[in-house]
């Protein structure tokens, strides 16, 4: 029988579209798991005070330690862009904040991923044998990650991405919705894969690719 945990106040850093999706994700966890401790109390966003409320909750200030304060302990960084996510985490990491991983209860092996910091795995994702996720990785709804794939810190997979077996995504990789990465492909640090692309060859660091098969492009809007 699942033990009941005391409620913990959680604050979402990021009040954009992905911030709203993370709020939805937390509500889905609470619906599926009888004793989820997480209760969202508000948002922080650098657009404050232009944005001062969202999803019926207050936007309390900018994403800075000065605005967040010392008493608010639990934060989640709800920013899809891998590089911006890293910047925000580094801005906050010198302070005594905790970044819980938020894993939908339907995910097999979720106990292992919950040991990480700041991992999001949304409903409908499938992670098979011996998958490794580092801290602050986002796996959006309906993604598939094949056996022995390794996804490194700050990387983000948007909805319905397929990562086939033994692939490696280095730090800060961003993969747009519906993209496919075939077996044993390596994607270098800071690279970006356009929505719907099929990656069949290794991608060097700091490269944007699009298309079928994916080729290097100059465009930056890829999600």
What features would you highlight for this structure?
5-stranded parallel beta sheet; 223 residues; UDP N-Acetylglucosamine Acyltransferase, domain 1; Rossmann fold; 4 helices; globular; single chain; 22 strands; alpha/beta
Number of strands: 22
What is the CATH C-level name of the largest domain?
Mainly Beta
Gross CATH architecture of the largest domain: 3 Solenoid
What is the overall pLDDT average? 92
Shape: globular
What can you see in these coordinates?
With 223 residues, the protein is an alpha/beta fold. It folds into two domains: 8-92, Rossmann fold; 101-223, UDP N-Acetylglucosamine Acyltransferase, domain 1, CATH 2.160.10. Helix content is 16%, strand content 25%. The protein has four helices and 22 strands. The protein has helices at residues 17-32, 65-68, 82-92, 110-113; strands spanning 8-13, 38-44, 53-54, 57-58, 74-77, 102-103, 120-121, 126-127, 132-133, 138-139, 144-145, 150-151, 156-157, 162-163, 168-169, 174-175, 180-181, 186-187, 192-193, 198-199, 208-210, 215-216. The strands form five sheets. The protein has an eight-stranded mixed β-sheet with strand order 6-7-10-13-16-19-21-22, covered by helices on one side. Strand 3 and strand 4 (57-58) form a beta hairpin.
Please summarize what this structure is.
This protein is an alpha/beta fold.
